[in-house]
Amino acid sequence: SGSTGVRKHIRHREDVLASEAYAWAEVLNMSASGTTATTTTISRVVLLAPTHHIYGFIWGVLLPLVLGVEVVDADISALPDLRSGDLVIAVPDQWAYLADSSKAWPAGVQGISSTAPLSAAVHRKLIDEQAGGKAAPLARLLQIYGSSETAGLAWRDDPSAPYTLAPGRTRGAQGEISLLLPSGKQAVMPVQDEVKWTGDHQFELLRRTDNSVQVGGHNVSPDWVAQQLQMHPRVQHAAVRLDTLATPPKLKAFVVLRSPQAAAHQREVEAWALDALPWYAALSSVTYGSALPQNAMGKPSDWPVAGPRTR
After folding, report:
1. What number of CA atoms fall less than 13 Å from residue 207's CA on the CB side?
2. What Cα–Cα distance (Å) separates residue 128 from each residue in 31, 45, 105, 110, 159?
3. Among residues 153, 196, 190, 148, which one has the least CA distance to residue 172?
4. What pLDDT sits at residue 180?
5. Angle between the 222-229 and 263-276 helix axes, to the nearest 10 degrees?
């Protein structure tokens, strides 16, 4: 784990991950109301997520083993011809791209989305024939909630509905989630986001608590990126935020240089950032000034982007 900053090693028991794959196989056979789903039986997994990420590993390696189905290692730019019975595993940015694609899909294709929230508009566009304009919408699209530390915890197939805990997971006394291990013991997993419980097994996701944002399927800390910029000898102060007006969303920076705002110095900083930062932490724009933006109360504030954004 650790898309930015110091990476940390997280250990997961093999039998626990295997039991999770069986839990998701059970969820795929039920509807949001807990009844048996009427969707097409899964006959193939089309994988767009990397298998070295726990999301891709569980859904692209373990689940197909449980289901006994073929896996197609696919790419968003060269999606294979889909067929009824396919289960497509992708991240929100990929789903947004597919929602705008003119590619026609057959009936009976299902999808899984995780690693970050999927917007309600994109979700509905993918499952609503009128909104999406597809030959056939997705038969079902599941959003999976979890993290690298906890693996998958909950799911929903309606963007307006709360998340439902996956089989084997229960709500603890303090709002944490407990997992029944194969040994019979309980493993306690703290929820890393602010949630509102609506029942013993359902909750609404409110907001992140770790100040990370999602860019290109990666969790990125804007504060960490600002710290990296301030390591450059010409940078005195830096602020970084998510540029929601960029398509797709990327990071933007506001930089205060130690010396006068010479164009050559600006180009030097931007070239260094392009080389030093991970691709998913690349900046869509850099704005320069004599002081970081503040509001009337002296608190950090947002800033408009002047000029074209990078792609």
Report:
1. 3
2. 17, 22, 13, 13, 12
3. 190
4. 79
5. 130
Each residue of 126-148: pLDDT tens digit? 988 655 555 568 999 999 998 88
Residue 197 CA to residue 205 CA, distance in Å, equals 9
The reported pLDDT for the residue numbered 34 is 47
- Taking alpha carbons only, the member of 70, 54, 57, 67 closest to residue 23 is 67
CB 16 within 8 A of CB 179: yes
C-alpha distances (whole Å) from 147 to each of 82, 154, 219 are: 29, 11, 10
pLDDT attached to residue 300: 83
Which pLDDT does position 32 carry in this prediction?
Answer: 46
Name the phi and psi angles at 275, rounded to 5.
-85, -35
How far, in Å, CA of 201 to CA of 76, rounded?
34
| 68: its two tokens | 């006994």
The letter for the amino acid at 51 is T
Residue pair 187/178 in contact by the 8 Å Cβ criterion: yes
Closest CA to 143 of 82, 81, 205: 205
Over the chain, what is the mean pLDDT?
84
Alpha-carbon distances of 136 from 219, 295, 304, rounded to whole Å? 32, 49, 40
User: Which of 97-101, 200-204, 252-256 has the least mean pLDDT?
Assistant: 97-101
**Quick one: pLDDT at residue 31?**
58
> Contact 88/48 with Cβ under 8 angstroms?
yes
Task: Please report, rounded to a whole number, the percentage of residues in the chain having pLDDT higher than 70.
Answer: 86
Instruction: Indicate whether 123 pLDDT > 90.
Output: yes
Q: Which of the four pLDDT bands, split at 50, 70 and 90, describes residue 208?
A: low
Let me know: does 143 contact 135? Beta carbons within 8 Å.
Answer: no
